[in-house]
Design brief:
alpha/beta; Aspartate Aminotransferase, domain 1; Aspartate Aminotransferase, domain 2; 2 domains; 4-stranded antiparallel beta sheet; 15 helices; 43% helix; binds pyridoxal-5'-phosphate
Length: 471
């Protein structure tokens, strides 16, 4: 391909992209394909000769697109929002064009310094402590793993990095029973072993019970374990429950335990001053992660990780082979020492574009709208005869189920709701996922897609009512 062909093709793609965003509602939200169906359409062997972009793009539209689930559809209410936006996509085009590896300051000074500035913007926007420093990671899973590794090294005076676990086998990590699976995964990868993870019970609102946390710590200390880290979740995956951070922080500071906050989804809401109560106690927190790639209009991947003491993080992860030694070391941030991979994408650019193009007010307006729609829907469901709300709705996720009068069998209700959800998803008009709350099947209705409006919520609610008839 030469420059002229690239230009022509790129313009065509931009037209396609704009049209896609305009017409995304026309596609079935959830891909309607069977396992192996796409694979079968792909040649077994790679092409020996060059193929034209026309052919490749045709296959993209005919083979790939039908196998995609449309996360940017405003009728996508499943899992969590992985929302995107125009400024974010435009920045990604530039990032791909520059194709820079932003592992150290020298390999792209602007990328390092923009990342530093944008992370500081987030600290201001979200009311995080001024002494926090931030770095962009790929995912919350990686950030949490990084937190565990740092806590581990701090507790062992950096000995585990040197000689392995010997003599340091008795660490304990605490989280609630509602915590995301990435916590358990990070516990395994960090070498603690799954049996070191202590899951603390939750109250009727699915929030960690601090009293039980304290009991578990006291009991572990008696048995000779070393309480290492507590994970508090701000916005659990099932219901967006908000663990009581202030009380948990009291306990972590009393027992000198690392406190990590997983706010992957809900952290975005901190740009709204009226939600800052969620992080009362934040001054005692050691590390904090949230994903702009979920609910802040910045396309995947972009996870913001903040730490109180960046020195500990760097000391845990730094490497300095001869070929990476530079004169600027010590004066600037070499972010390869702030995370696990060496190579790093220029992710700060899209976040910078998003924050500037929406403005703080624009971002706040969007989130407030989503939160208002969530409360409206909760009211609507509460007022309906045949449906019920299954969990509190502090943020943008509504857990509900169909529960018509006269059915008292729990298994039958589960089955009906499962059938209802699959019927809805198979229609291609909406997409929901489910969870279990106190053992009961609940459908999750998550409101956070960039362009979702009241109309989409109303349509989905009409559809839910219509499809519930006769199941
Ligand atoms: C989505 C989510 C995660 C995982 O995020 P990744 O960035 O995909 O690793 C972890 N914790 C919570 C609470 C989440 O909502």
């Amino acid at each position: 391909m030469n420059t002229e062909e690239f230009k022509k093709q790129a313009h065509e793609f931009v037209d396609w992209m704009a049209e896609y965003f305009e017409s995304v509602e026309k596609f079935p939200v959830k891909a309607k394909v069977n396992p192996g169906e796409i694979l079968e359409k792909l040649p077994l062997n790679p092409p020996a000769e060059a193929e034209s972009m026309d052919e490749i793009f045709r296959d993209f539209r005919q083979i790939i697109l039908p196998g995609m689930t449309h996360w940017q559809s405003p009728n996508f209410f499943a899992y969590f929002p992985a929302n995107s936006s125009y400024p974010s996509v435009l920045a990604e085009m530039l990032t791909a064009t520059l194709g820079a590896q932003c592992m150290i300051w020298e390999t792209s000074p602007a990328a390092a310094e923009l990342e530093e500035r944008v992370m500081n913007w987030l600290i201001q926007m979200m009311g995080l402590p001024q002494q926090f420093e931030g770095v962009i990671q790929d995912t919350a899973s990686t950030a949490t793993l990084t937190a565990f590794l740092t806590a581990r090294e701090k507790a062992s005076q950096f000995q585990i990095n040197e000689t392995g676990f010997e003599g340091n086998e008795k660490f304990r990590i605490y989280c609630s029973t509602e915590t995301h699976s990435s916590i358990e995964k990070a516990v395994k990868i960090a070498g603690f072993g799954k049996s070191s993870l202590v899951k603390i019970g939750v109250d009727e609102e699915f929030k960690m019970i601090p009293g039980l946390l304290k009991e578990a710590i006291i009991s572990d200390l008696k048995q000779g374990f070393r309480p290492l880290c507590i994970v508090a979740t701000i916005g659990t995956t099932s219901t967006t429950a908000i663990d009581p951070l202030e009380e948990i922080a009291q306990i972590s500071s009393e027992y000198k335990i690392w406190l990590h906050v997983d706010a992957a989804l809900a952290g975005s809401a901190l740009i709204l001053p009226e939600f800052r109560w969620m992080i009362n106690g934040i001054e005692k927190v050691d590390s904090f992660v949230f994903n702009p790639h979920k609910w802040l209009f910045t396309n995947f991947d972009c996870s913001a990780y903040f730490v109180r003491d960046a020195e500990l993080l760097i000391k845990t992860l730094e490497i300095l082979p001869e070929y990476l030694k530079t004169n600027s070391r010590g004066q600037v941030n070499d972010y390869r020492d702030w995370g696990i991979p060496l190579g790093r994408r220029f992710r700060a650019l899209k976040l910078w574009f998003v924050i500037r193009n929406f403005g703080q007010n624009g971002l706040q307006e969007k989130l407030r709208y989503h939160l208002q729609l969530s409360q409206q829907l909760k009211e609507t469901i509460n007022e309906s005869d045949d449906f019920e709300i299954m969990a509190p709705v502090p943020l943008n996720t509504i857990c509900f189920r169909y529960n018509p009068s006269g059915i008292n069998d729990a298994a039958q209700l589960d089955k009906m709701n499962e059938t209802l959800m699959h019927k809805l998803n198979d229609s291609g008009k909406v997409y929901f996922t489910h969870t279990r709350l106190n053992g009961n099947y609940a459908i999750r209705f998550v409101i956070g897609q960039t362009n979702v409006t009241e109309k989409h919520i109303n349509n989905a609610w009409d559809l839910i009512q219509e499809f519930s008839q006769g199941i």
